[in-house]
Specification:
The structure holds 2 protein chains of 2 kinds. Chain A is mainly alpha-helical. In chain A, about 55% of the residues lie in helices and about 0% in strands. Chain B is an alpha/beta fold. Classes of the chains: A mainly alpha, B alpha/beta. Chains A and B meet through helix 5, helix 6 and strand 1 of A and helix 1, strand 2, strand 4, helix 3 and helix 5 of B. Strand 1 (about 200) of chain A pairs antiparallel with strand 2 (about 85-90) of chain B, so a sheet runs across the interface.
């Protein structure tokens, strides 16, 4: 019994050995074959596609001259621009940005390659300017006489307002002292780094109003 | 922008009171109580005028940072009674120009270099520089400064606003970092004469802590 068992085990071992040997021998051949096949196939495909594109470019039919195959990148760029900035929302000289609700920046879900972004740099810069809910705000160098335009306060022009005018607004209920304080503080935030007149301010960040 | 932020170009210390004061004054107004023509108007004071609240009184110098004043300056308490909102302290030439005979007007260690909004590169006037610039730049409608020798009228002139330097004894100097007892006054700035006069009306008066003001009684 012991001898029979031993023989069977030896046979098993031999079988395993032959399988592994076969795999080792033909795997190399298999790999070689598959490489050759893919190379040949790809070259054939490339040749075929080049024939097709030349036909479209130089073909006699005007329909085949559509830029679909000639300028796929430009088409993508154009598409990307349309989705980022709506038409009519780009400022003419790139400086005077105004608030416009129809100019909201649309979210884009498409990923575009780096080269495409670079080619589209100017549009990308425009797309990164947030106009809503707060308008872009920075001293406008093109208007040196009005570098720091003062925003209205609750619809009321505070610029050059006198005490009597403010009292009138407040007695009419158009303005409260709290709004007045907030607007004047915003004015201070707006101009602080340029003229530095407030060394210390009653700061509201710890009050329940915020 | 917190208590620890001592950068001269930014807010130095927080004081949460300004909107509470404003809302209190608003509710007074809705109940028909209007204290004065200045009720509910924000204003600034020069940093050498004491205020007994969470604001420092340092005359622009780090040497006085953390000093505790005994009470509001007379002019400030008068304005508080008139229902005015103290928005903060304005920068000044450090120590109201006592720092040096020759240095940049409008500079203080705590406040940094204040600049004229008409031209960032010229002398903005001083020593009540921040008060004048803030009024000129529509940050407040009026502000208080102090003058020993030109410290109100000089920045007012250079920032194209109205500045009033009262006769010595008309406004109390109690609670103001002193310079010269015969010359010191507390003055005011406005964009119109009317605004500046409103402020002067609110701050003048007899103060037992400044015997020069007793001359008002005649």
């Amino acid at each position: 019994m012991g001898k029979v068992l031993q023989r069977k085990q030896e046979e098993k071992r031999q079988r395993r050995g032959t399988v592994s040997r076969l795999v080792n021998r033909y795997l190399y051949l298999l790999l070689l074959l598959s490489t050759i096949v893919t190379t040949v196939l790809s070259s054939v495909l490339a040749f075929l596609s080049s024939i097709a594109s030349t036909d479209l470019v130089h073909g006699p039919s005007p329909q085949s001259r559509t830029p679909r195959l000639r300028t796929p990148v430009a088409l993508k760029l154009n598409h990307g621009r349309m989705s980022l900035v709506r038409p009519g929302c780009l400022p003419p000289n790139g400086s005077a940005f105004r608030t416009a609700h129809h100019c909201d920046i649309q979210p884009t879900h498409r990923r575009t390659s780096t080269t495409q972004w670079n080619a589209n740099a100017s549009n990308l810069a425009a797309s990164e300017i947030l106009l809503n809910p707060f308008p872009y705000y920075f001293p406008d160098q093109n208007e040196p006489a009005n570098l720091f335009p003062m925003p209205q306060c609750n619809g009321i022009k505070l610029e050059e307002a006198t005490i009597d005018q403010l009292q009138e607004y407040m007695s009419q209920g158009k303005l409260t002292s709290v709004q007045l304080v907030m607007c004047y503080m915003q004015r201070e935030f707006q101009t602080r780094e340029y003229i530095k007149y407030v060394s210390q301010q009653s700061h509201p960040l710890r009050t329940p109003f915020y | 922008m917190d208590d620890a932020d001592l950068n001269p170009s930014s807010v130095v210390q927080l004081n949460p009171d300004v909107l509470n004061i404003a809302s209190t004054l608003d509710s007074e107004r809705t109940h028909g109580q209007i204290r004065s023509p200045l009720h509910g108007i924000p204003f600034l004071i020069k940093d050498n005028i004491a205020s007994k609240d969470k604001l420092e009184t340092t005359a622009g110098s780090f040497a006085l940072l953390g000093s505790i004043v005994p009470r509001d300056a007379f002019v400030v308490s008068k304005l508080r009674q008139a229902g005015v909102i103290l928005l903060g302290k304005a920068t000044l030439s450090e120590w109201a120009d006592m720092r040096s005979n020759n240095y940049s007007e409008g500079y203080s260690a705590r406040g940094g270099q204040a600049r004229s909004s008409y031209n960032f590169t010229v002398n903005p006037g001083g020593s009540s520089t921040g008060s004048a610039i803030a009024v000129a730049n529509n940050v407040v409608t009026f502000a208080l400064g102090s003058e020993t020798d030109g410290s109100v009228i000089n920045p007012a002139e250079r920032n194209a606003i109205v500045g009033i330097k009262p006769t010595v004894g008309l406004t109390s100097r109690a609670g103001v970092v002193p310079e010269r007892i015969h010359q010191d006054t507390v003055g005011c700035f406005g964009r119109t004469v009317q605004d500046a006069v409103y402020a002067l009306d609110a701050i003048y008066g007899v103060d037992p802590r400044d015997n020069y003001t007793s001359a008002q009684m005649g």
